Amino acid sequence: MQKKSSIPVRSSAKAAAPAAGKRAPPAKHPVKALHGNHVVDALYVEHRYAARLLDLLAEQTQALLRRRPIDREAALGAMSYLTQHSDAYHHPREDAMFARLAKRDPRLVTRIAEIERAHRAIGSAGKQLLSALQRLQKGNPADEAGVASRMGDYIGAMREHMAIEERDLFPRARQVLDDDDLAKIDRAFRRVTDPIFEASVREAYAAYNPVVRYFAEQPALRQVLGVLDAFYESSLRLGDVLFGGVAGEAPTASKQLRGEDEREASH
Question: CATH class for domain 36-192?
Fold first, then answer.
């Protein structure tokens, strides 16, 4: 029986959350163009990034449960990103958008309050998990069972949380927030370039090398990359490689986002 996450996410939502060892399904609203509600589009993209890191953590959880070695450095890198980047930039932008959404649609006030509490609970749980992984990194195998439990809870809570937002709040934000609302959110919480998925591989590897190495060593990606040494020095963006923005495919949402930022900077 799958253990329910102990991290509070909601009180009344009924969104199904994938088990910790299973990959989360792709977002139901993939970003094709970034016009109009670009704040909402950016949040969808960032969920996609977080989902890929949750997959990484889920694989480490399953390894721990089977008493197999885990990639401790990659797990630490993923949690460092989720606690230092997502909690610092993604969640505050969501909270700002949800505050405006609550004014536009008062029926969502209760649900938004639940989501805001979940942001705090997930942030706290993430920091505790990061500390547990740091202790494990120091070589205390007695912590493995506790780390596996914490990691499973965190993964389940994050996946469920993102599913609720994408089901109940993001679509409504697209419908009712106007350009003035979105412009004010942008001014108050300027979006920053993602340090893993939107930086060049070279820059991402310098900042989060265990995470980039982990992705590069996946069999499917190795077939695309060919020579790994050249990849680590590449100016390609990791998100474009992981999400199909190479080999002549359509640009990813992250590339479009950055294109907008670069055009604004040039004016």
Answer: mainly alpha
